[in-house]
Every structure is written in C-alpha cells, then in structure tokens.
Amino acid sequence: MPRVRPGRVRTKNTNRREALKLSTMAPEDFNVRPDEVKSIACPDCRTWRRIMGDKVLKIREHCISDKVAEGEEHVTCPGSDQLVVIDIDVRRWQARQHRLLRDAMPQENRRAARQFYKPLPSPAAPVSRITAEATLESTRQTYLAHRKGCTRCVGGQHCTDGGILARRYVLALNQEPARREAREQLERQERRTARKQTAPAVRKAQWVKHGGKAVEMANNRCAERTPGSLSEFRGPQLPLAPQDMEAHERRQTELGKRYARRNATTPAA
Q1: In sequence order, what are the beta bridge partners of 58?
Q2: Number of domains composing the chain
Q3: Is there a domain that residue 193 lies in?
Q4: 70: which of 39, 176, 178, 268 is 20 to 30 A away, CA to CA?
C-alpha cells in the first residue's frame, strides 16, 4: 500500500483570521482519521476542502465557485489558507463518529462485527438406535409399528432395523420374569417400610386405648416369686412318666441294640 503523504504548504500566507479550532465545530464537519486524508467543510463556502500541511495545518486555497471551467470568474474563497488546530481527542471523536454512523444506518443493513451461524439440527436417529428404557409393551408396539409400515419385513424376513427391533423385543420378553420379581420385591419392601413407619403410631394408639390406670393396676398385682417355688410351666400337673410304657421300653431296647452294633463295628484305637 503506498504511503499517504500530507499535502505540502507552498505558502506561508494566511487569511489573517484566528486559528480555527476543531472543538468549536460540529463533529461531522471535519475528518481527521489517522489513515485517511484530512479534510474539512469550509466555514465560508461550506464545501469540503483538504487540510494541507503536517505540523502547520491550513485549509487549501480554493475558489468560491466550482464552475470556473464553464466560464465563471475565479474568486478565491475567504476561507482559503485558514489555520486549523486539532484540539480534540481523535480516538474519542472517531468512536463517536462510528456510533453515529451505525445508528443512522437502516436496521436491515446493520451487521454485527462477528457473524454467528446457527447450526443446522442433526437428523433424528432411527427408532432402532434410540437408547431408552425398553419395556415389554414399548418394544412390542415399536416392533409391530415397524412391521406394519415396512415393505421389506415380510413373514420371517426382517430388514436391518426390523431385525434390531425383533431382537430387542425378544430380549425384553426374556427379561420380563426377572423384572416382575424385582417389582414385587420392591413393592414388598415399600410395604414393610410403610408398616415400620406406622408401627409407632399404632403402638401409641394402643397405649392410649388400653394404657393408663388399667396397666398400672395390673403391674401392681404382680407378686414376687419366692426362691424355690416352681413356675406355672413346671408345676406338678405336668406328666413325668411316658404315656405308653411298653412302647417306651421297646424303643429303649431297640436303641440299645443299635448302639451295641455300632460299637462292635468301630475298630479299637
């Protein structure tokens, strides 16, 4: 890219006016961007003219009329050779100009600095590749729906997806007894948990119903057992001898003979 050289000031003459400060002008009446040629709208003729010079800035000498080539008289504009002083923050002025240009642009022509493209949605996965909870009824309905709409699944023949759905249905059919047992076990566990949770409330209701003075009186009637006394479960009314003595004797004799044979066959140590 060729270097942009500032325009040379070929004369030291000025229009003898006070230097024009950019801070006193409207921001849209001059252009002092670093990478562009400096220009300004002449305060007298209101035409855009170039700002000449590098250190000492002047408005380029120009004519009032732009039709000198058509025969009009050449009259120098009083704003020619007007000194210009840049007393503004160029970066802040440039940012404000960009904002004004963006706001003045029609809404349909505005574009973000960076474009974000929404990705296209991926195609839906086939039913045979969906990994969801497979139950006996869901696999059966899916398989039957595929058989009804597929022209390649005829009789015992299946297409690729039909074979996958058929194997999935058979697998769910084989796993159904284990699932049923697991559900019943879970239900039993839930019932036991519910009973454990309600047991304290039941005992509290029973105590309210049967407790109080009746339980206190029953506890007070309990007498201490003296040492040596028999329990009611070991009283004299219990039978001490076998009911059939002959059968008892035969049983004892048979057991004695069995023990004798066992001792005879056991080798001596």
Answers
A1: 52, 83
A2: 2
A3: yes
A4: 39
Sheet holding 30-31, edge to edge: 20-21, 83-85, 57-59, 48-52, 39-41, 30-31
Residues in the chain: 269
Q: Which domain holds residue 144?
A: 127-209
pTM of the full structure: 0.36
Query: Could you report the average pLDDT of every consecutive run of 10 residues in the chain (269 residues)?
Result: 58 86 90 89 90 88 75 82 91 87 69 70 72 76 85 82 85 86 88 80 75 67 61 60 88 91 72
The residue among 106, 141, 170 that closes a domain is 106
Matching residue, tokens 């009329």: 65
Determine the Cα–Cα distance for residues 139 and 145; give it in Å rounded to an integer: 10
User: Which single residue is written with the structure tokens 């003075």?
Assistant: 213
Taking CA atoms, 136 is separated from 145, 155, 174, 175, 179, in Å, by 14, 22, 9, 9, 10
Domain co-membership, 74 together with 152: no
- The 8-class DSSP code of residue 151 comes to S
